[in-house]
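User: For my dataset I need records formatted as: sequence, then structure tokens, nothing else. Please produce one.
Assistant:
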Amino acid sequence: MTRRAAFRTHAGPRAQASALAEGVALHRAGRLAEAEGCYRRIKRRDPDYAEALRMRALVAHQQREPDTAVKLLRRAVEHQPSNPVYHHSLGGLLRALGDSTGAIAAFRRAWALQPERAENGLDLGDALAQAGDSEAALAVYAEVCRARPALLAPYLRSANLMFERGDPEGAAARLREAESRAAADGTTQCELAAAWAAIGAYEQAAKLYTERLAQAPDDAQARAGLGSACQSLGQFEAATAHFEQALDLDAGLGWVYAALMSNRRYVFSDARLATMQRLVADPDLDARARSQLHFALGQHFDAGKAAEQAFAHFEAGNRLHARREPFDRSVFDARIERILSRCSRDFFQAHKGMGHDSERPLLIVGMPRSGTSLVEQIVASHPQAHGAGELNDIGRMVRELPVITGSDKRYPECLDRLTPQAATMLAQRYLGGLEARAPAAVRVTDKMPFNMLWLGLIALILPNARVIYCRRDAMDNALSCYFQLFSRGLRFAYDLSHVGHVYRQHERLMAHWCEHLPLSMLTVDYEDLVREPESQSRRLIEFTGLDWDERCLDFHRHARGVRTASVWQVRQPVYQSSLARWKTYEPWLAPLRESLAGSTD
């Protein structure tokens, strides 16, 4: 044996003992290749071997090598099959990669091995909900609630899922249960308030925030939350006051600046503007907050007619957001093509006679920022109608369809296996949600814009539903999306090329529905509505089957909670300043123009 070899033999155990700690330190510093080298030095006989495999998997995931990551985690599980940590880590990775079956199995095993750890059950419930097995998810959340009655998370997740399933009363009951059991600390109170706001109970949210502020008036998050609740209730002066106080307490609350600018009459003070510009230039500030600040500054300069400065901020904000949540155009295009090929006139003829004959549902669809909120507010001003806002009920049903139909295929292919009994069940579930929200209303609107993707299902379960298609000039519509920081989803909206492409695809889809869909449909052009509000409003109400009511012309006086980006606009009279707005920004819109002119093939 050489002297060098002998040295390695004696140093080996000591080197392996410190390799994991050294690797973790390098890993945290972002030196991934060096960290992986440390992890690789840990031999199979070392007790840290499985943990080294898990850390190597994390490196592979960060380096966008998902197959390698999964392979390494499976080896860790094989090495220590009774360790719940490795099953849980495998579940998280598989879920991120879209393997819901594998993720559920891994989370279920982790929970069986370590039932006292609530995160195992919560992640299992989340994976089941994501896979469309809502009943199983709710059962898991309920079991976690029983095991950990003071833990807030399972109540909140149950409430959110129940609300998505068209059960607002069940969601409210779960939140009331949480209030009676969860800890009474400030963080919990604010989380509960936010949960009430998420199901549209803004008064209850405001009450909880107010109670929290009575105890801790310097709680910036509670102050901002109260401002948001007031804004949703149309109490703009109160909202503005609360938002400003929140920023005085914590200038880094990026979303509050954007929320303030939702009130188009608001103007930042010079001092506030200086703070914003200082913060947005700070590279150490969280990217999400910087994006929110850029959008708020964009709106500020837009209102001041400083187009070049406004667009620069909108572009910067969009770029930051798009990095966090990239849009996969191929996935969206494939979904459109599958709908076009499956949901034909012949398909609907072969599947007619199912569902429920209720005429209560009124679906308002189209691109976001196409006038859907304005149309809903006009209809909701009628005494026999109710505006339910953007409901997730249909989208949740679509996610559950493979489980409901016993199919291994997604929507729309699984529609072939939808039975009359299942169609009736889904219809009754949706109608039950409308009944709970507005028991006396003859018509109830659902203005989720992208219900346009799910009209194939809607036609089968609610054959007498009416559909209002909101259409707007392509350039104005796309630019309005690009200038709006949405609360969730809509990843396409943060790139001019993507939003133009999606606009053209939406046109293709709606042209297909107009030709093939066996539902009553009315097209409302935004430009016509703002130029001729009375004649278009009369046409709109006539389509709903209701008698005309003059209050529909005074829609901006109608008080109701609004959750969308149009929270301010729907409480103003019709204005024409948004027409041809794109011309102000024409020098910077070449990517949008090219995308709109291009082929959608």
